[in-house]
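Lab channel / #folding
Pinned by the channel admin:
"Please post every new chain as: sequence first, then the structure tokens as a reply. Keep commentary short and put observations after the output so the thread stays searchable."

First post following the new format, from NK:
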Amino acid sequence: MSNRGLRVSSLGLAILVLGAACSSGSSGANGATGGSTSTEAAPPSTAPGTTAPGSPTSASTTPGGSASSSTTIPPGYAPLAALMLTSVPRGLALAPDAIADTGATNLAKAIQDAVASNAGDVLRSAGFVVGYQRSWADADQAQHDDIFLYKFASAAGASKYVTGRVAELESVNSQLSISTFPVLIAGAVGLHSQSATSSFGVVVFPKGVYVVEAVSTDASTQDQSSNAVALANAQLQRLP
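Reply from TO:
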């Protein structure tokens, strides 16, 4: 079962609070090879969410949730992957990319993961270059933390994408009661929703040519805003 499927079944949220990792192995979920049409030189065409030819078939983790040295990073994605968190503030375990359908992200995968019908236009107009994703969860899959780190051709494009992405999140989750919350990160927007059985918090912000989407979900009524902020701040510290 994919990370997305676990998230939906355990939280009862509509697709997708965040448009997180897609169903593993589904047709198109990992993007067509060479799917990136960015304004900068695209990474090699190894399909995002999969390993490079001849490499191990799945990522692994060390005790405590840190990425181990056997985690496979396709050529061309290593600089962005090096900026990603390997552990999260609330101590959840890092999910292998092959299970969570995370890892290297080209344009095709970024469009599918965003869920919104206009995602391609939003990403292209902002100058999407390349992305990387990681996901963490507790043992019973009730709690999830997700980080999406995307690089754009310019800082102006990154800021533009934040505006578009927030609009996407509000549109896709329009059936939920969503409220904003303050985040002490320049340019950041925080969104939160909770029901009788689930809660999510998401923080989206730009930093130079990068955009971070930090998401915390829980199959409870506990407000996830503070968890999302802590996750966002932790990722911010990794960026140049």
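NK: The two ends are 35 Å apart (CA to CA).
TO: also worth noting, Strands lie at 93-94, 103-105, 128-137, 143-152, 178-181, 189-194, 199-207, 210-218.
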